[in-house]
Write a structure and sequence with these properties.
Layout lengths: L4 E3 L9 E4 L10 H25 L2 H6 L6 H23 L8 E2 L6 H22 L6 H25 L15 H8 L3 E3 L16 E2 L10 E5 L11 E6 L2 E6 L5 E3 L6 E8 L10 E10 L13
Antiparallel strand pairs: 1-11, 2-8, 3-4, 5-6, 6-9, 7-8, 7-10, 10-11
Helix pairs in contact: 1-3, 1-4, 3-5, 4-5, 4-6
C-alpha cells in the first residue's frame, strides 16, 4: 500500500496533458535580488534547525525510533545552513536581508524530520529555478555549490532516515520564486520593515480538503479560495521533473492524480490548460509525496 503526505507547511474522469515546464518571466530580478531571495530561504532553514535541535537531544531521537546517527548528521546540516547564511550575508554586505520571525509546527523528532526534508527539497528546487537569473558567473558558481549540498541533504533525509527514495526521477523539479515563496511564507509570521523588498508574492493557499488523501490513479478533493469569476475553468498542474501534467478540476474541487507520478510532486491550480505561469496560477503549490520502493512500487513510510 502507499501513503501521500501533504506539506504546506465526486471523482472526475479527465485526460492528462503533459506540458514542458517553460515559464515566461516579464521582470528579470537582479543578482542582488536573487541572492537576497536565497538568503531569505537560508535564514528560514537556519532558524528551523537552531530551534528544533535545541528542543531535542540525541536520546529524544533514539526514543522516537530514529537511527542513532541521525542526530549528529542533522547537527551537521544545521551548521551547513548557518554557513550558507554567513556566506550570502557577506556577499551582499549592507544590502543583506535580515532574518524574519518564524513559526514551525514541530511537535516531536519525527515531525522535525518531515519538515526538514520538505525544506531541503523545496530549497533544492528553489536554487534550480532561480539559477537562470544569475548573471555574475562567480555568484552562479557559488549558488551551484549550495544547490548541490541542499540536494545531498534532501537525499540523505529521504533515503537514510525515512527509508524512501533519494530522488523522484531523472530531473529535479524547478520552482520559480513566487512558487517557493508561497511555500516559505507559511512559516513566516513577520519580517523587519527595513528588509529590502523582494520581487516575490505568495499565491493563495492550496490544501487537501479535510479527510482527503491524494494517491496516484485516484481523485481527491481540494480546499482553496474560488476565483471571483465563478465561470473560470480550473486545472490541476502536477509539477514533476521537467514537466507539468495538467488535468481538469471538477466542479466540486476534485482532481485526479496521474497514475505515473512518484516521489515529490508540486500541485498548482491554474486557469490555463496549456501550461504553467504566475499570471494563470490560482492557488498553490501544494507539496505532495508519493513514496516508492526501488522497483517503483508505492509504499507506506513509517512516518
Amino acid at each position: 500500500m502507499f501513503s501521500a503526505i501533504f506539506v504546506s507547511l465526486a471523482i472526475l474522469a479527465g485526460s492528462v496533458t503533459a506540458r514542458p515546464l517553460a515559464r515566461a518571466t516579464a521582470d528579470v530580478p537582479t543578482d542582488t535580488q536573487v541572492l537576497n531571495y536565497a538568503l531569505t530561504l537560508e535564514h528560514l532553514e537556519n532558524a528551523f534547525y537552531a530551534e528544533a535541535l535545541s528542543k531535542f537531544s540525541r536520546q529524544n531521537f533514539k526514543d522516537a525510533g530514529l537511527p542513532d546517527f541521525a542526530y549528529g548528521r542533522f547537527l551537521e546540516i544545521m551548521r551547513h545552513e548557518k554557513t550558507h547564511v554567513d556566506f550570502l550575508t557577506t556577499a551582499l554586505g549592507e544590502n543583506a536581508t535580515k532574518p524574519c520571525t518564524y513559526s514551525f509546527p514541530i511537535t516531536d523528532p519525527k515531525s522535525f524530520v518531515t519538515i526538514s526534508r520538505s525544506l531541503e527539497t523545496v530549497g533544492t528546487s528553489a536554487y534550480v529555478g532561480a539559477s537562470k537569473f544569475i548573471q555574475n558567473k562567480d555568484y552562479l558558481l557559488a549558488a551551484a555549490t549550495i544547490l548541490t549540498t541542499e540536494a545531498r541533504q534532501s537525499a540523505w533525509i529521504d533515503s537514510a532516515v525515512r527509508k524512501s527514495s533519494a530522488w523522484s526521477g531523472p530531473f529535479e523539479t524547478p520552482l520559480d520564486m513566487n512558487q517557493v515563496f508561497s511555500i516559505a511564507s507559511g512559516f513566516i509570521t513577520s519580517c523587519p520593515s527595513s528588509n529590502p523588498p523582494l520581487p516575490v508574492k505568495a499565491f493563495p493557499a492550496l490544501k487537501a480538503a479535510s479527510g482527503a488523501t491524494a494517491a496516484p490513479g485516484k481523485s481527491f478533493k481540494l480546499d482553496f479560495a474560488r476565483p471571483a469569476d465563478a465561470s473560470t475553468k480550473l486545472y490541476g498542474a502536477f509539477l514533476s521533473g521537467q514537466n507539468a501534467l495538467i488535468v481538469p478540476v471538477g466542479a466540486d474541487g476534485s482532481v485526479s492524480v496521474p497514475s505515473e507520478l512518484r516521489g515529490t510532486v508540486y500541485l498548482l491550480l491554474t486557469s490555463d490548460a496549456n501550461g504553467v505561469s504566475d499570471s494563470s496560477t490560482v492557488a498553490g503549490p501544494l507539496m505532495l509525496e508519493f513514496p516508492y520502493d526501488s522497483f517503483g512500487n508505492l509504499i507506506t513510510l513509517p512516518f
